[in-house]
Amino acid sequence: MKPTGIVGLGAVGSRVARQLTASGSHLAVFDTDHGAISELRSSPNTVALIDANLRDDMTDVAVVATPAPQAPIALDLLRRGVHVVTTTDDPDDVHELLGHDAEIERLGRCLVVGAAASPGMSGLLVAELRQRFDEIDEIHAAFHGTGGPACARQHHRALGGDAIGWHDGEWIERPGGSGRELFWFPEPIGGKDCYRAELADPIVLHRAFPTVNRISARVSATRRDRLTARLPMMSPPHPEGGLGGIRIEVRGSLAGARVTHVAGIAERTAVIAGAVAASVADQLQGLVSNGGVPAGVVVLGDGRLDETALMTAVIQRGIEVFEYIGAAD
Q1: Strand, helix or coil for residue 260
Q2: How far apart are CA 317 and CA 279, in angstroms?
Q3: Is the pLDDT of residue 49 over 70?
Q4: In degrees rounded to 5, what are phi and psi of residue 158?
Q5: How far is 209 from 317, CA to CA, in rounded Å?
Q6: 105, 99, 101, 67: which is closest to 86 by C-alpha?
Q7: DSSP output for 137-162
């Protein structure tokens, strides 16, 4: 089996590399920061140091973990014959990638869009909760915290942008920073005020679950976050980010009754993203061996990959999933 390619060794990419080498995978990596590559030299597995021109004779599957936009890198790799896993959370980048479905299918390659925490893990959680319903009609996502610096900058911009949501068959736009709701995340995060923001999750979740009537996404924010959202960041973002959280609420019906299920995660955002991207790359490597890689654009939750196996793999990589089971009377 050829090495798994990784382009970008920031907060997320380095986590993907650690996850894959820990499970015995060999890597072909590229980053403009040679110090990041040097850290991987201590790995007991072989790490091939290469330039950015990954080709299918070097790797079958590559993870793109650079800051947005990832579309130019991903499309170049696909045209070189490589299956690609992207980790982007930028809405414009996601739109661009989704728009190349016909070309990618014609190439016979697979492009997984948004295999990170948000989007990515959010789709896997919805797919897991979906099994508890006869039919689902609402998905509401909330997120707390950021990964690396690029993720923090995207979070900052998102609060100042236009938030989109899917509402009864049409896209709606609302100002970022509006629509405050108090959501409870798994401890030790607890309750956080969350607001609409310019997020990619509604786009990806609608693609995965097109029959759902309502889809929304919010992020936690402080008063200062909201006031400064349209200004440059006042201080440099932390290189790894702090503790992050994901909360997914799914509503629907079961045996004629109205049902709601809620699941969540409390972990560093980059760690979640790294576990998801590594698990997807591993599964694609396995599918390459038996010729079962789906052609075209894939998003997590659309059923084209084995999402039960992906959820199991993510949990085995140390991500603990919590489910709200109600309070005692």
Answers
A1: strand
A2: 8
A3: no
A4: -60, -35
A5: 26
A6: 67
A7: EEEEEEEE---SHHHHHHHHHHHTSE
Between CA 198 and CA 203 the distance in angstroms is 11
How do the domains of the chain map onto residue ranges?
4-115+272-316, 121-270
Instruction: Give the mean model confidence (pLDDT) for residues 153-174.
Output: 82
CATH superfamily name and code, 4-115+272-316: NAD(P)-binding Rossmann-like Domain (3.40.50.720)
Three-class DSSP category at 71: helix
Residue bearing tokens 């790490």 = 47
Rg (the chain; Cα; Å)? 19
Q: How far is CA 283 from CA 129, 256, 302, 314, in A?
A: 21, 36, 15, 11
The Cα–Cα gap between 27 and 109 comes to 20
**329: confidence class by pLDDT, cuts 50, 70, 90:** very low
The third-level CATH classification (topology) of the domain covering 121-270 is Dihydrodipicolinate Reductase; domain 2 (3.30.360)
DSSP letters of 174-208? EETT-S-EEEEETTTTEEEEEEE---SHHHHHHHH
Instruction: Find all residues with CB under 8 Å of 125, minimum gap 6, and list them.
Output: 246, 248, 263, 265, 321
| Ramachandran region, residue 208 (left: φ > 0; alpha: ψ -120 to 50; beta: rest) | alpha
Distance CA 314, CA 163 (A): 29
Q: What is the mean pLDDT of residues 293-319?
A: 97
